[in-house]
Amino acid sequence: MALRKENILIVDDDIHILELLQRHLQSMDYHTFKAISVKEALFILKDTDIDLLITDIRMPDVNGLQLLQFVSEHYPEIPKLVVTGYPSVNGAFEVIKSGAIDYLSKPFTKTELKQIVEKTFANAAQDQKQKPVSQNIQTNDYADMVGASEAFGSVINSIDRVKNNKATVIVKGESGTGKELVARAIHYSGKFSRAPFIAVNCGAIPENLQETELFGYKKGAFTGANENRSGFFQAAEGGTLFLDEIGTASLTVQTKLLRALQEKEITKVGSQKVEKVDIRIIAATNADLLENIKNKTFREDLYYRLTVVEINVPPLRERKSDIPLLVKKFLRKYGEEYKDRLFRISDEALGILKRYQWPGNIRELENIIQRTVIMSDGLIDVKDLPDFLKFQIEFPEADFLPLGEMEKEYVRRILIHTKGNKTKAAEILQIDRKTLRNKLS
């Protein structure tokens, strides 16, 4: 049974180079596909099993370096070879950094092409055998949080300073950065850790129920109040009450919160009796409370009572050096939960995770790792990651070209189709060879 010929995709905006490469490679018994632009190359890659990519670097609209990066992340198994007419030390560095195994300078001989293609295939096979896998990532844990960045250290330093007192703390940060984890770390790493920790999402409680849920109510206070009931403040007695999304609290609740902070006392709905409370309040928000104050939806006096200590949790894009530690944590967590085994991640896949900007922060990262663990078998590689994480090529909007330029572009495509046969191209275009030459000049 004959072995399958290797499929080689050649990308170059120079028709003559395309034809030369195709002739040489076909004489070496390779099967070739040609593209005169990155856009055409992507269509071929989508529908064809390609064993080697050979591309030029300098091309209009989208260059070869962008193509190399795209292929490195979407088709990491395809080895890449660059053929360029502009060799330089910096250029070679950029080429290798973009994922190419080697590059060949124009002009070149058939022998040089044959040698470097064979070398590229051989190196690719060797690299596949020796593919590195990240598995010895040193984790720095702190109360279920992990990180080693300067930004993470700043948060931990703040936690250490407040964990053993009951000063009011406000935790600020984007959604998904781990504000509740910070609140729990303050409580459970300090001397009040044996007391209750009660977490309340103010945004999840309807406005008309916020007061009764937080402060409790007296029997007969309203229809359906058939018994006395304590609220979250009483449940957190001696410990910590964590008020998430504090910016969504109603103005009525804000007034009672201010009194609770100032006087350390609350009053149940429907009662005249004042009750003393001994709790620490930690609030959290991803909203701009100062803007809310301007809009008169948040009390200024309450804001300053809440911000005795302010902890700002940085977004994940500002602490990317912590991503390997977080990935290791989530791989261990979901590997044990779903597959009862240890999962690992390749360096290439980890590199993609480190480059992404993570608008959803740690919550989004955890979701991605959870999903990939479910859908893979022991090793998380580039192919297991969602495409939106990987490098995407953005093509510029096509300009309106003069009719002559449009005509010339169409003639070039016909020549690609006819493999450079000008007689066949002229027949398709229903013109003579002289007219064809004029249209290309």
Automatic annotation (TrEMBL):
Domain Response regulatory: 7-121
Organism: Pricia antarctica
PANTHER family: SIGMA L-DEPENDENT TRANSCRIPTIONAL REGULATOR YPLP-RELATED, TRANSCRIPTIONAL REGULATORY PROTEIN
GO process terms (BP): phosphorelay signal transduction system; regulation of DNA-templated transcription
Gene3D superfamilies in the record: 1.10.8.60, 3.40.50.2300, Homeodomain-like, P-loop containing nucleotide triphosphate hydrolases
Protein name: DNA-binding transcriptional response regulator, NtrC family, contains REC, AAA-type ATPase, and a Fis-type DNA-binding domains
InterPro entries for this protein: AAA+_ATPase, AAA_lid_NorR, CheY-like_superfamily, Homeodomain-like_sf, HTH_Fis, P-loop_NTPase, Sig_transdc_resp-reg_receiver, Sigma_54_int
SMART domains: AAA, REC
Lineage, opening ranks: Bacteria, Pseudomonadati, Bacteroidota, Flavobacteriia, Flavobacteriales
